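lol ok so funny story. i was supposed to be doing the assay writeup but got distracted and ended up predicting the structure for this chain instead. priorities right. anyway since i did it might as well share w the group, maybe its usefull for someone
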Amino acid sequence: MGVTERLWPSENGPVLPMAPDPPSTAARVQGPQGMGPIGPVDAPPTSDRLEGPPLRLSSFDAETITNRNFRIFDLAAWDRFFLPPTMEAMVDAPRRGTVEAVEDDNRSAIFPEPVATIDGLPYFLSVKGIGSTIDPFSLRRLDSAYAAELSDDLDVRERLRAAGPDPSGGFITGELWLRGSPYGGQGLPHAMTALRVSETADLTSIEGFRIAPVVKIALLPEAVANRLRSIHWYRRYLNRIVQEIRLVPSNVRIYFHGRSTVGQDPGHVFDRFRLDSLERAHRFEVNFVRSGIALLTLFARTLARSGSPERCSGLDFQDVWLDKDAVLAPDGTVFFVDLEGIDAVSVDRGEVREKIEDQIFRSLYEFMFAYEQIETERSRRFGPAGSRKRQFESIVVEALQDDPYVRARTDPHRLTLEIRPRVREESLSYEFPLMDF
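and the output, tada:
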């Protein structure tokens, strides 16, 4: 994807036209304040706003680290950190503005109006690390009164008690959580991993594996972070507290961590994305399978030599999962959102095929479960398309027609994925039996 056009300012924030390949694809980015028209979108139509519980966020100036792929743009309007009303008392600096966002997942929020189009898809600004509303040890509501109880800082207690009636939102705490982040927030080590993964992408694609890129990391001021660190149960998080500023195509997840998911209500997803014809539903399925198989084969797609002829490395998933850490775009494409659990792993050359197989099996059930929900809803609305297996076969074959790393091979007995890793060496190729007839 090439980015060729110059930038120009706007009264409502920076406007950043991008001209990717092919030239006819529209892509524009503008700042989070005063969102206006964003240009033509060649994606399936969707409603103008994302759905979700409303959450007002206040914005404050922040030191940021910007994704190198986006540094050619003037994104100064996104040099902010965002807090809900519950934590405003922790900040001495003046507020720069407010945003009416919607809740997403346990510790994130999304601006409900699109701020960008890239390759014809609309994207929304997502902030990861805006606080949690639940005590992880008791499921008690984490409100201002409880946060004051947990704090060992008298000044913090007074700030929270003086804030008045309990406002909306949760808390970033100082409790060490998952080794690299504070509970309710995001830590610099995890955010830097997500940023590294984002910077390997062609904006939103790593060899066909689609991601929701981290555009910036916003560092909370140390004075604010120190106050929040005082709110903890057992162990204190000592590293920098940050927020990830991301671009996401929707807030529709596969099964967990979302108010709208494919697994819980596929009919609502069809309505939400206006899949109101057989043709649109078919394209949605093909895009889901194409991007899903790219996710299953990420290691093979990113395989490279690792220092010696006998070692290879590629990207793999750690403590992240398809059913809760990915979202669906309006066209059916799977975008992985929580990138902190993706990193390069190195294996002996003789273990490459085993690693390819392990990665497929790791997410295969979640992929097939989601496909079954989508196909069942498509069949309910527009009629069956023949046998379950033959329908799946036709979708897979169509989805992989132009895939440089995976091909579908069919015979009377099975449907097989022929996987040719990025390191073009026949001994590293692998055949995975996807379905039996």
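The first helix runs from residue 144 to 150. Residues 303 and 314 are 4 Å apart (CA to CA).
back to the writeup now i swear
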